[in-house]
Amino acid sequence: MCRMQAKHPPVIDPARADDGDGPLLFAALSSGDLRMTAAHSHARGQAIGALSGLLTITTERERLVVPPGYAIWIPPHHLHGLDAHGPVSAWSVYLAPGACAALPAQPQVFQVSGLLREAVLRASAWPAAGLMSAPTPAQERIAAVILDELSAAPREQLVLTMPTDRRLLKIAQALTADPADPRSLNEWAEWAAIAPRTLTRHFVSETGLSFSDWRQRARLMRAVELLAAGHAVTSVALELGYDSLSAFIAMFRREMGVAPGGFAASHAAALALP
């Protein structure tokens, strides 16, 4: 059940996300403190964008981080729960199953274009009457822009797929809890009672990433959370096990397209918006 408290009533109650025949429904949510939603799913696909604050989405196999200016795509019938880290302002778009064909079959995080943001904000002002079953020509054009922008959005590196093999999952859960753990692949294999070659082969097949790339992704996502919480860049680098601040900055810039200091500043500026 959603416990996120809205400053203003949502345009569409998320509990009614599967109502109506129209291709798109919209809801605007915001929160003044830490809230979460329990695991649930919709017959419609859902895109959730963070205007300010930080969201973490957990599915049956993935963990996804959504900073300000980013959004997550959740396909229809995909079980998911949400954590809002501190003050959050966010939007949601619900898409009819037939409108989801051009979108990924798995959850994805993507950067929100200026055009998508403005189109969603425009659509969020539409009246709920009719639940978009009879949109006007102008509304149809805005809806088409939103669908085009969602389909064309570049995917980001803020998705962490968990393995299903119990031994690999044990390792993944330990690294998620402590991404700075310095143990080598061979040490992790011995700890989980699995052959190193088996660990290497199955990690790629089950997560799509090599073990080292998966561990780096886990560190990146923790870095995003810590920076969004106001931690200094140096302290984040040390907490994640980096001996060199420059190595951490280079990794973050390579994956996120911006230095960690710039990301933190952008996050702080987003929180300051009315």
UniProtKB/TrEMBL annotation:
Residues 169-266 form the HTH araC/xylS-type domain. GO terms for molecular function: DNA-binding transcription factor activity; sequence-specific DNA binding. CDD domains: cupin_NimR-like_N (cd06124). The keyword Glycoprotein does not apply. The keyword Repressor applies. Keywords: DNA-binding, Repressor, Transcription, Transcription regulation. InterPro entries: AraC-bd, Homeodomain-like_sf, HTH_AraC, HTH_AraC-typ_CS, RmlC-like_jellyroll, RmlC_Cupin_sf. Signal peptide: none annotated. It holds the Pfam family AraC_binding. PANTHER family: HTH-TYPE TRANSCRIPTIONAL REGULATOR NIMR (PTHR11019), TRANSCRIPTIONAL REGULATOR-RELATED (PTHR11019:SF159). This is Helix-turn-helix domain-containing protein. It comes from Rugamonas rivuli.
